[in-house]
Structures are given as structure tokens and as C-alpha cells.
Amino acid sequence: MSNKVRNCYFQSAASLGAAIAILLLTGGTTPAAEQSALPDFFMGGFGWHSRQANIMPPMPGAPGERGPIRDHPDFPHASNNSGLLPNERIGDDTSPLLQPWAAQVTREANEKVFSGGFPFSAAQRCFPPGVPGFLGFTAEPMLLLQTPDMVTIVHQRGQTVRRIYLNEKHSDNPTPSWMGESVGHYEGDTLVVDTIGLNDKTYMGNFPIPHSEELHVVERIRIIPGSPDLLTDAPRPRDDPYFINPNNKVIQIVATVEDPVAFTAPYSMMMLYELADYAMEESICSENNDDRFNQGLVPIPNDPTPDF
Fold first, then answer.
1. Which of 31, 49, 215, 274 could serve as a FRET partner for 139 with CA atoms 20 to 30 Å apart?
2. Domain boundaries in the chain?
3. pLDDT tens, 78-93?
């Protein structure tokens, strides 16, 4: 197939996908004024991704305390593309937001790294990320599919799927699960998502910060133009130009978490995503992901029970 034909094919497919997404989103019957207010997260079907290595502090005005719980102040983390020598993540076990038991769990994880071990990473070890842990799944794109009754988020990483049921109430006693029970509604151009029913097997993003099954997360998801005001984290020269350009579209997710068992107060965090310029691919996390160098890595999830 020639490049010209291939480009025409993808442009046509993207246009058709956008038309289908709008039809699904509105149900084909929503008044034009309401249609224009709803965000179109599909945006051509290539998805959104972020090269921001860390979950970020929110912009001023977010509910609760200013999170997230970050790296230990004595051991600042340096990631790839930061211009510094990369090192392992050491969570801040001294954060006043942590209840004593949660601080102890974080401290024990840090001590494992100090003794030569490797910190746990849900993305690297193929575990479901949980909520808001999915904000740490940044290097690969996610696709948001909207219908009148549901928003489905598909992550390329391990094909993790999350379903947000629109205009529904929570179950009385949802069974705790990896991704919890999410219900949502639109407030103008913002999708507001409320999640409960999370198990206590996931962490709060980039660091091994624990939580309990009492965790309650509220996310506000919207598309906004780029702005220098969005840069609330340490400078990242390769990535920041996209997010400060007002001609670029940015997905901003602000998540507010509340868990009186694990945290002393509610707090908020933020993640930014840019439009991906490539199609999602099959990404099998567990393939060739053994502990080949005997580093004591957490084994990848494995269920030996036959399906049939």
C-alpha cells in the first residue's frame, strides 16, 4: 500500500470513528446545545498518553490537601529523560498524610530498596493498577470510548479495561475488586467519576503507598488547552512544550482521594495526557517478563485454574 493510499485510509477511518463516537455518545437524539457541551474524548481514535513520569500536584483550588504523596525528601527520584542519573523510587514515609500503619508499610518497602532490592511497580509486574493507581500507567496510551450509558477506558498496557457507568447509583455493598465500582456523570465539559469498592491490593500510584478498602476516589476528567499553569511538577524539557502550547489539547484528570483508615485527610493529585500520534497496539505485559536475573521481583499474576 502506498503512503498516499495509507494516509487516506487512516484519515477516513479516523473520521468514521469520530462520527460513530459522537453518535454513540449522544444516542443520536441529544439536542445540539447539549451535544456541543459534552467532551469528545475519542478525538480520532489514537488515544491519549503521558510521558510525565510522576503523578503531579494539582493546580490551586483542588479539594483537600495538596498531594500526591511523593518521593522521600532525602531521596528525590530521577526518572528517564529527566537529565539526571535515574534511580529507584523511595516513597515519603514521613508524609503527614499517612496514618502510622500506612507509613510503616511504606517504610518497609523503602528498606527493601535500601538493602538492594527493587520497588514494586504494578505496571512492570503486570498487576491491575487500581484507582487512582492507573494514573501511573503513563508510557502507553489509553482510549476512552463513550456511549450514553457508559464510558470505557482501555489501557494498552495489558489491555486493562475500566468501565464507568453513567447516571447510576452505587451498589449498596459492592464486592471489593481491583478497579472498584465507578459511576459518573457529566458536568458541562467535565466527566465526574465516583469510585468505591476497591480492594486493598493496589497502591496510590508511583510509590508503594497503601490504602484500605475504605478508599473513595472522585475524578474530574476534562479536555483543556495547553497552558504554563498546568506545569506543577519539576521541569521535563522533552514533554513540557506540548502542555504549555495553547493550540494543543490536553486531558487533565484531577483525582481526590479519601480513606480515613490509611490517610489523615483527603488530598488531590493530577495527571496530564497528550493526544497520541500512533494507534494502540497489542501489549502483553506477562510475555517474557520473568525474573531472569534473580532480582527478587514480585512474580507476575498467574491463575492456574483452567477456564474450561
1. 215
2. 1-38, 39-275
3. 777 667 777 788 999 9
